[in-house]
Specification:
single chain, alpha+beta, 2 domains, 7-stranded mixed sheet, two-stranded parallel sheet, 14 helices, 11 strands
Length: 388
């Protein structure tokens, strides 16, 4: 029987049947329930457990292929599996979301049946095991999700079958799928994320604080000198994170920050709008002058956000206003001009005398100390008029 002949009549007793559409002789798009997927695409993490592999010939064969066309589960890839499983179970329970197709590879050709409309079937023999050349983390996460929530085994999973190709083709495909893709920059990614509570807070600040309205760049990773916007969404969100978490919030970077209490999340929006409205009334002109001042640097904005953190737990509005004024007074006395006063605090001065701002994780703590702690050397340094 010719496996590549779409008119082949398949016998369901010969293997797993997956419905879908044939694209060409080596490329088929289909769907299968997770429980069926698990039968012909084992958990790839099992191939990295020596005792398990030694006892199962099918995993030995699978590992040999994986070593040629995949990377092992370690570091960020391994750490992402439980997070991906969380996402799969949340989507199954009704949360908005989507998972991309898992691309499966078989060096041997697979049989296909197709009717006159183009709809068809692909068959995976009972003893054949396939390797994911893309979406392997999702595949592992689906096994983990099924262990947590059995109902996810019934969910349909989009699949792409690449078959009848040499392993050299699969290696190149792995490269092309993983290396040629362009990852969105943090600002663009954040602007698309409606689920992260502090991204929502940042968007509220961008829309409700007069200084920021229509002046937040939601696309670029950093502003060009000619950009009419005053801040990127990533930098503004960083300031909202430190407002919520204190200066230690810089550790989160662009990762989601868990705020499980809906009431606290709602209160955070109100406090953020209040604090950044007041802060930009004091610092707006300095933030606008990016060429001459450090104020708009992400590390500095993160420290300014952290200056508002004491307000978060003050429920009484009058008491909060008093504390807010104390924090603003500290900001009013700062000389924000780029120069020696900020060297080693917000950035570095090159041998040519050019000041370069540092990143939030590297410099935000030093900036925060200079803004907030009267006992620190930096506190006096950035308030010296000689620094201007």
């Amino acid at each position: 029987m010719d496996e590549n002949n779409p008119n082949t009549r398949l016998n369901p007793t010969d293997g797993h049947m997956v419905v879908g559409v044939m694209i060409d002789d080596h490329y088929f798009i289909g769907r299968a329930r997770a429980a069926q997927l698990f039968q012909f695409a084992p958990d790839p993490r099992e191939t990295e457990k020596k005792r398990v592999v030694d006892a199962r010939k099918e995993l030995q064969d699978l590992l040999a292929i994986r070593q040629e066309v995949q990377r092992l589960f370690a570091g960020a890839k391994a750490a992402n599996v439980p997070r991906y499983a969380d996402y799969i179970t949340s989507v199954h329970k009704g949360q908005d979301g989507i998972t991309p197709p898992i691309i499966l590879y078989s060096e041997q050709p697979l049989k296909i049946q197709q009717d006159e409309t183009g709809a068809g079937w692909i068959q995976i023999p009972w003893d054949r095991r396939l390797v994911a050349i893309d979406g392997e983390t999702q595949l592992a996460a689906r096994f983990e999700a099924a262990n947590r929530l059995q109902e996810t085994r019934d969910a349909f999973v989009p699949l792409v079958f690449c078959h009848g190709r040499k392993q050299s083709w699969a290696r190149q495909a792995f490269h092309d799928l993983n290396v040629l893709a362009v990852k969105p920059n943090p600002s663009l990614s954040l602007s698309m994320d409606a689920r992260d509570p502090l991204t929502k807070v940042a968007c509220e600040v961008a829309e409700r604080v007069p200084f920021f309205i229509n002046r937040v760049n939601k696309v670029q990773r950093q502003l060009k000198s000619s950009d009419p916007k005053v801040v990127t969404l990533a930098a503004l969100r960083g300031a909202c994170v430190t407002l919520a978490e204190g200066i230690s919030g810089v550790k989160w970077g662009t990762r989601p920050v868990p705020i499980n209490d809906p009431q606290r999340a709602a209160a955070m929006e109100s406090i953020a709008v209040e604090w950044f409205t007041a802060a930009t009334q004091v610092l707006g002109s300095m933030i606008e002058d990016r060429e001459n001042n450090v104020t708009s640097a992400p590390a500095v904005l993160a420290a300014i956000g952290a200056m508002g953190h004491p307000l978060v737990d003050i429920a009484d509005e009058q008491e909060r206003r008093v504390r807010e004024e104390l924090q603003l007074e500290k900001l009013r006395s700062v000389v924000w001009t780029k120069g020696p006063a900020w060297d080693g605090i917000a950035g570095k001065i090159s041998l040519k005398g050019t000041f370069s701002a540092g990143g939030s994780k590297e410099n935000a703590y030093a900036v925060y100390g200079a803004l907030n702690d009267p006992l620190s050397d930096g506190y006096k340094t950035v308030r010296s008029r000689a620094a201007a």
